Amino acid sequence: MRSVALNSVAAVVKTRPKLSSIWFIPLVALIASAWIVTQYYLDRGPEIKITFTTAEGIEAGKTKIRALNVEVGVVERVELNSNLENVVIYARIKPDAANLLRQDTQFWVEKPRVGSRGISGLSTLLSGAYIELEPGKGYPGKTKFIGLNNRPLTPGTQKGLNVFLISDATSSLAEGAPVLYHGFRVGQITHLEVLSSGKLRASAFINEPYNRLVTSTSRFFNASGFSFRLTPEGMDFESESISSLLSGGVAFDVPQGINMGTMVKDGSEFNLYAGEKHIHLHPYQYTNEYLLLFDASTRGLQEGAPVEYRGIPVGTVAAISLDLVPRSVHNQQNVPQVPVLIRIDAGRIVGEDSPQGQQKLQARFNEYVAQGMRAALKNASIVTGQRIITLDFYPEVPAGQMSQLAGHQVMPTISDDIDRVISRVGIFVDKLNQLPLTETLVSAQTTLSQVNKVLIDADELVRTGNSLLSQPEWQNMPQELTATIQELQVTLAGFQPDSAFYQDLQQTLQQAKQTLESIERVGHALNSQPSSIIFSEPRQADIQPGATK
Question: How many CB atoms lie within 10 A of CB 49?
C-alpha cells in the first residue's frame, strides 16, 4: 500500500461584499423613482372636497377651478354624498395656489346669469361652466368647503360695513338690490331672511368709503317706488333711480333737523321705513312704549294714529288689541277695558334720541303723571270719525303713578268731556231706535184722518148756515122788527111818559132794539167769517204799556 504524503497548505478566506455592484443600478433607479413619485405628489397639490346642491355643468377631468380667471385646479371626480341630497366635488389644487385655501375661501359655479345688475358669465357659453375660487383672509390649510349656489354679491376682499334692516311688513326687496344715498349706489342687499317673529331682516353691505355716511341717526327706507304731485309748475315726479323701480332697493339719509350722529359698528340694526316721507314723520329711533286702558269705545282709533301733546305730535299708536293684556285680567273685570299700546319718541320730549334719552323720558313721565298728566281719546275729525290720543295735564284729577301690566308701563287715562257727550247722544239715538215709531205714525195718521173728517163736517155746517141766512124770511126779519118798533113808538106817543104802562113799553122797546142789534152783529159776523159759528175768534193780546225812556 502506497501512502501519499499530503502537504498542509493554509486556506485563504476572502470576504465577499454584502451588496453586489450589480444592484447599484436598480438602487439608483429606485431612488429616482421615489423622487419622481414624491415630486409628482408635491406637484399635484392638495385635494379638496366641495359640497354643492347640484352638479349641473360640472364634469370630472374637464371642469376647471379658476381664481381671477387664472386656472388653479381641476375637478377629478364627482360623487353623491351619503344622504343622497347633495353632490361632493373632489378637486385638485395646484401647489402654488394652495395658499388660497383658507377658512373663509368661497367656491361657486360660474355660468350665464341674468340679474338686477345685468348679465354675467357670458364667457362660459363657449368655454363651459367652471368653478370660481375667491380666496379668504382666514387661516390656511382648509380642505373641505360648502359651495355657494350663486356668485356672492359682495367680494370677500371688499371693505365696508354690514348692517341689518328690520321691516315689519313684506317688501319688494331682492338679493342684489341697490343701497342708495341721494340717488348714488353705495352698496347692495346681500341676504334676506324671515325671523321667527314674522319680521323681515335684510342684510346690507355699504362699500368703503361710503360706509362713513351711515351714522347712529341715519334712517333707511324703501326706495322701490315713486311719487308724483301737481305743482303750479306742473307734475313733480320723484324716484331714487330707474334700477330701484325695476329691482327694488333701499336708500338712507338723516332726517331734517337731526344731527349727523356718530359712526356705527359692523352688524348694527336699523328699522326699514316704508318710504322717504315716513323718516320725516317718524325721524326718531328710540321710543318708550306705554299701555293705555280705556273704558269707552275706541272706534275711529287706528294703528299709526298720532299721539299728541297739546297739538304737537310726540308718538304714534302701536297696537289696539285685547291680546295686549292677559285673559285673566279681563276675566277679573266686570266690563273689560280696551288696551291701546302707544310709542313715545324720546327725542321729541327730552331731545336725546338714544338709550339715555329713553331713561330720561321714563323719569320725566313719572313726574308728569304725578302732576296730573293723563292720556285721553280725542276726535280729530267729526266728518270721518277719526280719533287720536292726546296727553295733557288735568289739575282736578288726584295724583297718580305709573303701574306695570303684562311687561308694559301703564299710563293713567281720563274720559274726554266731548266723548261723554257723544256717548250720551249715542245712547239717546239707541233709545230712539227702540221706540215704536211705526205704531206712532199709524196712530198719528188715524188722528189726522179724524180731524179731516171733523173739518169736512164743519164746512157742511157753515154751508148750511149760509143757506139759512140767504133765505128771504131771515133777511126780512130786521125790517119787520124795525116796523114793529116804529109802531110801538107811535102807540107810546099817545101815552103819558110818567105812566107805568109807558115805562114798561119803553123797556120792552129797548130790549127789542138790543135784540135787533145782536141779530145784526151775528149776521155781519156770519157773512164775514162763516166758521165763527163753530170756532171763536182769537183773543186779542192785552195792550202792553211802553217802556219809559
Answer: 13
